[in-house]
Amino acid sequence: MTRAALLVLADGRFPAGGHAHSGGAEAAVRAGRITGAADLEDFCRGRLHTTGLVAAALAAAAALGVDPVALDEAADARTPSPALRGTARKLGRQLLRAARAAWPDAGLDALARTFPRGAHQPVVLGVTARAAGLDPRDAAYCAAYESVSGPATAVVRLLSLDPFDATGVLARTADEVDLVADRAVRAARAALTGGVDALPAASAPLLEIGAEVHTALPTRLFAS
Amino acid sequence: MHLDHSHPHAPAEAGADARRPDGRRRALRIGLGGPVGSGKTATVAALCRELRDEFALAVVTNDIYTREDAEFLLREAVLPPERIAAVETGACPHTAIRDDISANLEAVEDLEDAVGPLDLVLVESGGDNLTATFSKGLVDAQVFVIDVAGGDDIPRKGGPGVTTADLLVVNKTDLAPHVGSDLARMAADAKAQRAELPVVFQSLRADSGVRDVAAWVRDRLAAWTA
After folding, report:
1. What is the CA radius of gyration of chain B?
2. A109 to chain B: which residues are within 8 Å by CB?
3. Closest-CA residue in chain A for B101?
4. B100 with A97: Cβ contact below 8 A
5. Which residue in B has a C-alpha nearest to residue A26's C-alpha?
6. How many angstroms separate the CA of residue B58 from the nearest CA in chain A?
7. For chain A, which residues lie within 8 Å of any Cβ of chain B, measuring from their own Cβ?
8. Where are the domains of chain B?
9. What are the start and end residues of every segment in region (Disordered) (chain B) (predicted)?
10. CB B202 within 8 A of CB B209
11. Rounded distance between C-alpha atoms, residue B206 and residue B226, angstroms
């Protein structure tokens, strides 16, 4: 195992399609809920402890070796919005393509055969981390960090926000990313013995509603 | 249920691989890029009309913040709707055609699965700057479309699109007298930037229309299937 693989996987330039998505930030900007760095920070904190925690736990569980099919069903059950389920599978499929090129692995190949249209992105992320020789905590960190870095970079484009302010938001939420990754790994270990019901189901209704509104818009910068 | 690990490793889908997973040759992919408003979509529409009876065609569009380009092609009915796919680019078309091509590759492959086998897929970029080029992992050849009204100094300025595209199209030549563009100077500058790489001057309003670009595409297809 090489720890540096984590840097490759977590790199914002890893070519897995994330650049076209705002993690709900565009819908929140349009609704007036994000207007600057302060409410971007609130948004990121909210997303981290809901969607971010669920994604991190799914990723950690997949990296631990919990059955990806059961995890994908658990992800569906935790994602009420059809638009968000579609986005998660689309991004999962894109990640799987990049992952198979980067870390050729029988587990990734099997995942592609089982889910030709894509599995939920956090599940693919966990299997990818395993293929890259990373541990469940690394997978959880990747998912948790992505849950805030996506919106922060999107808001730089959406509001012409000062990029130093956006990066400051990410730095200030780092302690909480640690906490979320810890919780996610504990839940993933519980799921290994107790099944996927042990995984958190923290919900963010405005993210789900915003995703449905966003998908119906005729013009938008980001796909989600 | 557990995933099946018994199969041997299937090769990962690679963009530049000329074969589909079933072993058949995939469609030739040609990218069309260039600045906003230079006539990329109009050229794609004209190519579809010109080539659709000879070849099995599909188009992928990359819009910046709308689906206008895909909708234009649908409205003009240049191809049946199931042969046109739109990719959303997150405000950054050059990322989707060069740095992170996964969404475009999936759109191309889904078209081949849904309506294939195809001979040709045209991948149109959203309007971008002079440095926007397609990844070789996404397309086999690329066309860069500029127009005379965007300034006759663009060929002289060069940049990766003008300098390295497999075909440079200087569009809207009918407007040259009205905007004071010097076509001879544009041709000389393009020659200096591109050496032997081809350049087509076209006006889609003229009788010749997209003829020269279509001829170049036919040559590429002949080489692809040879």
Report:
1. 18
2. 7, 9-10, 12
3. A15
4. no
5. B90
6. 20
7. 13, 15-22, 67-70, 90, 93-94, 97-98, 100-101, 104, 106-107, 109-114, 154, 157, 218-223
8. 28-225
9. 1-21
10. yes
11. 32
The CATH homologous superfamily to which domain A32-215 belongs is Urease accessory protein UreF (1.10.4190.10)
| Helix locations, B59-119, DSSP H | 68-75, 93-94, 102-115
At A35-94, the pLDDT tens digits run: 999 999 999 999 999 999 999 999 999 999 999 999 999 999 999 999 999 999 999 999
Region B168-172 average pLDDT: 97
Residue A99's closest CA among A54, A141, A142? A142
Q: Minimal Cα–Cα distance from A179 to chain B, Å?
A: 30
Are the C-beta atoms of residues A224 and A24 closer than 8 Å to each other? yes
CATH topology of domain B28-225: Rossmann fold (3.40.50)
Q: How many other C-beta atoms can be found within 10 angstroms of the C-beta atom of residue A201?
A: 12
For B166, the 3-state DSSP assignment is coil
Structure confidence by residue, pLDDT tens digits, B10-66: 333 445 567 777 778 899 999 999 999 999 999 999 999 999 999 999 999 998 777
ipTM of the complex: 0.88
Question: Domain map of chain A by residue range?
Answer: 32-215
